[in-house]
Amino acid sequence: MSVRVAAAVLGVALSGCAVSDPDKEPLPAGAQCRSLLGQPLYPPPVAEDQRAKLEQQLVDARAAWQAAPDDADALIWYGRRLGYLGQFREAVEVFSEGIRRHPEDARMWRFRGHRGITLRQFDKAVADLERATQLIEGQPDQIEPAGTPNARGIDLDTLHENVWYHLALARFLRGEYEEALSDWETCLTTVRNDDGRSMCAYWIASAAGRAAAAEQAQGDATQAAALRARGAAALAGIRPEMDIVEYTSYHQLALAWKGELEPDALLASARQHVDGDIDLATVGFGVANWHLCRGETELAQAIFAEVERGPSWHAFGHVAAEVELARAAGRRGSARRQPERLPQRILVVADAAPEHAPIGPDDIVRRVGRDAKGPRDAVALLHDGQVREAARLPPLGDDLPAVADVHGEEGDVLALAADL
User: How far is CA 397 from the centre of its chain?
Assistant: First the structure.
């Protein structure tokens, strides 16, 4: 067969990432990363009335860690203070040092995973946060002190909550909606206040809605209904009069998903807050995703674009909107395409020798095995960018080893699938 696959596919053939990895492109001086749309991203703006305080806190945190380099708490605060000033790459370096010094401390993996999401390194974030879940298993939970105190001075979050929350988010950004749904359901079991319950309920409904839409597109109405029911169950306990300290936007979004607030009115209100770009990103993505789950794609894309134009590119709503725009544009970064958009799932094995024997069913089972997230539909061996052999996969057993998968640009993969 003679289908030419883009060279970008070969560059990431067993990475588990998508074709356009922002980390692989040189960054301009001062940039923290590239957006999934290819734009360099520089430290986001810091309010001028807060800058001097944050800079002094960073100086103090650095000095505290330098005075006690094996103090895990001091290292964590140094990394967190870097992040508050938009120095995310430097924060990752600090948390990496923390992992070297304290490999069994789940907090190091949790915070590095968080900043992996910020830097659009979703696969790395998932790996870090999965490790954190292993380390917290069977361990008592602990309060995670807030870096920026809320109006009541209450620490709302816990370590376990934040590990599961960020793991779910990273999976959601990769398009793994059912896995994200399960992780947010686990997160819900760890929360201790109405802020956390509202946050989890909103994200559970969001992930359930996307997973249900995918199943509906595949013709499985029964599974779609079961997924929506899980979202509705999480929203059942959300009420207008809950005691919300800080996560007002999540609470309002949960009420909107429940049907007790009008989503577009909520978005219109968020647009009125001149200094509320992070809230606009949060609400904007939530409302756009609500529309997307109802098949209103053009409206959803317009809101995603509005969010993406904002300056707070580190906000999770901004990251999520960017993912959606990148998917729609066919330039996906580390975001995986939804199953309904890619009916043929191809496992690509690069650098196969030209003399490799033709692929047969037994050879596929022996050499390729099973993807960790399910069987691929087909396998292709490449040599120098040229498809050497390709074949459909037979049914594979659950006991086979996991392998990494990669998708090329949509046109390349669909062209390959069409010729199988």
Answer: 29
161's tokens: 């909550």
Rounded to the nearest 5 degrees, what angle is found at the Cα of 245, between the Cα atoms of 243 and 247? 105
What residues are paired with 389 via a beta bridge? 381
Choose between 356 and 251: higher pLDDT: 251
pTM here is 0.76
**Nearest partner of 16 among 402, 416, 411, 410, judged by Cα:** 402
386-392 sheet: strands from edge to edge: 346-349, 378-383, 386-392
Indicate the angle between helix axes 248-258 and 277-293, nearest 10 degrees: 20
Type of residue found at 352: A
Host H or E run for residue 176: none
Q: Distance between CA 103 and CA 295 in Å, rounded?
A: 45
Measured from the Cβ of residue 374, the count of other Cβ atoms closer than 10 Å reads 11
Check residue 295 and give left, alpha or beta (phi > 0: left; psi -120 to 50: alpha). Answer: left
Averaged over 187-209, what is the pLDDT? 98
Question: Can you list the alpha helix ranges (DSSP code H) found in 68-145?
Answer: 72-84, 88-101, 106-118, 122-136
Nearest residue to 186 via CA among 216, 158, 145, 146: 158
- Host H or E run for residue 301: helix 297-308
Higher model confidence: residue 21 or residue 58?
58
Give yes or no for a contact between 18 and 411, defined as CB atoms under 8 angstroms apart: no
d(CA 41, CA 60): 27
Nearest 5°: phi and psi at 50?
A: -110, -15
Taking the CB of residue 238, how many other CB atoms lie within 10 A of it? 22
Under 8 Å between Cβ of 384 and 413: no
In tens, the pLDDT along 265-275 reads 999 999 998 66
CB 325 within 8 A of CB 305: yes
Task: Return the C-alpha torsion angle 305, 308, 310, 315, nearest 10.
Answer: 140
Tell whether the model's pLDDT for residue 7 goes beyond 50.
no
Q: Do 262 and 234 touch, CB atoms closer than 8 A?
A: no
Compute the average pLDDT of residues 96-118.
Answer: 98
Q: Which residues of 406-416 are buried (b: 16+ CB within 10 A; e: fewer)?
A: bbbbbebbeeb
Q: How far apart are CA 358 and CA 107, in angstroms?
A: 48
